[in-house]
Amino acid sequence: MKIWNQNSKDQNSVIDNFLSGEDIVLDQELFLYDIEASIAHAHELEHINILNKSETKKIITALKKLAKLFQSNKFKLTAKYEDCHSAIEDYLTKELGNIGKKIHTGRSRNDQVIVAMRLYVRAKLDEMQALNLKIAQSFFDKALQHSADSMPGYTHLQRAVPSTWGLWFGAFAESFLDNIDLLSNTQSWMNINPLGTAAGYGVNLPIKRELSTKELGFKRKQLNSLYVQNSRGKFELELLGSLKQPMLDVRKFAWDMSIFLSQEFNLLRIASKYTTGSSIMPNKSNPDVIEIMRANYAVIAGHYAELENLISLPSGYHRDLQLTKRSLIYSMHCAAKTLYLLPDLIKSIKVDVQRSNEFIDKDMLMTDQAYELVQSGVPFREAYVKVKTLKNNKLTPQSASRKHSSSGSAYNLDLKTLNRRLQKLTQSK
């Protein structure tokens, strides 16, 4: 339903459905944010005498009523509406008549969509940071628990040097803390107000955009009206880039888990609820949850590529930009449902310490042997050749000296430093 040309004889349901796309489904996410922005916009219209105090009060009361109806599922956003913006305006018009028709003064659906998306993103990034913090805490707890437990260290998937499970778990803990910083910076970068820029060229009304900026909690207004439209897709692309980072970590973690859970390695166990059996092979226990977690990075990377190609457009608004909403919301859902499962999965991990020790052979100690010679004054390159040639088998994993290990390495994890950062973020959130 197009409320601006309801009487048009040229309306075609097939074309209308094509143009609306998935908006009705996606706008379920944006409905309440559009109401929030509409309330702020009503205050702006009152400030320039488009609405009087009584009219403003009636509009805001109706909008708050609609929000409650939507939350209680008594107002449903269905296909009879083109989108949430049309549905809200239609409701106000039916409730308030000509007063309701005034709400669209000084704005376009273009800035309506963008401001609702900005409010949605801001809220979702709060949730995303909280999830990353839980994950970081879970990895840190495991790092603390297994700080001294031996683990075979690999490069090129070949045995390299002795390591610890504390190093492995701690690596992911620190990475997810970095993800929080990135998400927070992205949130700050996007926390600017586009409302009042209309379709990219402003309006011939003295709208005080500072009012909605303050009321909606944005740090500043996005100034240039054309840039607001040009930034649509650009901001979403940066957001998807920040979502890709924790999902990259998930993919790497999932790859490691797939290897360490295999019968050939058998170094780790996870709770059975994260595995499934085979439809044909009774002996199988497949880490399906981990594999889908790994695959979900590709989903977000696909949306990123979709969005990157979508926004290759001239300046100003184009209907192509409608699809940016889809890429962002679906990516947010995919990342959220993946990350949500991680903390408890991590907590369920059991390390087979005995088998881990069995994987550490004498050849993996050659680097330690070289550094023992270095500490006695032998140049490193000579020590390297000597150890490689002689293969001194006297050194054992237990006798290898670790007292000079560098900060952040397997035998000097410095978890106190990592914990301080973790606690600081916990307190700030």
**Superfamily at the CATH H level of the largest domain?**
Fumarase/aspartase (Central domain)
Describe the global form: elongated
Rg over CA atoms, rounded to whole Å, is 29 Å
Main-sheet strand order equals: 1-2
CATH-derived topology of the largest domain: Fumarase C, Chain A, domain 2
Secondary structure tally, helices: 17
- Helix content, binned percent: 55-70%
By DSSP, the count of extended strands is 6
- What is the count of distinct domains? 3
Most strands sheet: 2 strands, antiparallel
Low-confidence stretches: none
What's the order of the H and E elements? HHHHHHHEEHEHEHHEHHEHHHH
**Beta fraction:** under 5%
**CATH architecture tag of the largest domain:** Up-down Bundle
In the CATH scheme, the class of the largest domain would be Mainly Alpha
Brief write-up:
With 429 residues, this protein is mainly alpha-helical. 60% of the residues lie in helices and 5% in strands. The mean pLDDT is 92.
